[in-house]
Amino acid sequence: MNRLRDEMRQLNIQPNIITFSSLIDCFGKRGDIETVDRLVDEMRQLNIQPEVITFNSLIDCFGKRGDIETVNQLVDEMKQLNIQPTVITFNSLIDCFGKRGDIETVDRLIDEMRQLNIQPTVVTFNSLIDCFGKKGDIETVNQLIDEMRQLNIQPEVITFNSLIDCFGKRGDIETVNRLRDEMKQLNIQPDIITITSLLDTKRTQDE
């Protein structure tokens, strides 16, 4: 990063919010928290105001680390700056709290999305299905599947992986087989997670 900064100085290029947001996203995805913190500090020193894309990258970065305190601070800062969240913001938050099994916060986030008239994407549904599936809440999982169909949102391999894992652990072989057939019809190729879940389901059936 220092070399990049030096090269920018040599070319007389002043970093702006796009530069910082891109760098935060890059180092955040690498899990380099030290550099992310340094970039945020440098933004403040240069009096560069963060935008929603900056917060999205930061929330995703700290959310994936399970740093709930920092995630909540970032959400509060967005509110103070009157920055409206996007579906990407909500996707990262739902994924973060969903993986912790914090259903209360996930439900609140869903309500906020509806109030702001923000349409969910397949990424939103993937996180929700994974969250409620791991809790064994089959009723909500089925409601989510129905909602995806109503919104004409195409499932992807990640969606099917969570569904197969959810119904497989309940020993619901009929639904697992139907999901596998649906993947074939949609020409969605299974990955290693799909295959592992299907094998786990078969072992459960054999026992």
N/C terminus separation:
54 Å
Quick one: biggest sheet?
A: none
Helix- and strand-based class? mainly alpha
In total, the number of strands is: 0
Alpha plus pi helix count: 12
Silhouette: elongated
Overall pLDDT score? 90
Radius of gyration of CA atoms, rounded to a whole number: 20 Å
Order of helices and strands: HHHHHHHHHHHH
Low-confidence parts = none
Oligomer: single chain
The amount of beta strand, in percent, is under 5%
Q: What percent of the residues sit in helical stretches (DSSP H or I)?
A: over 70%
Keywords:
207 residues; mainly alpha; 74% helix; 0% strand
In short:
By secondary structure, the chain is an all-alpha fold.
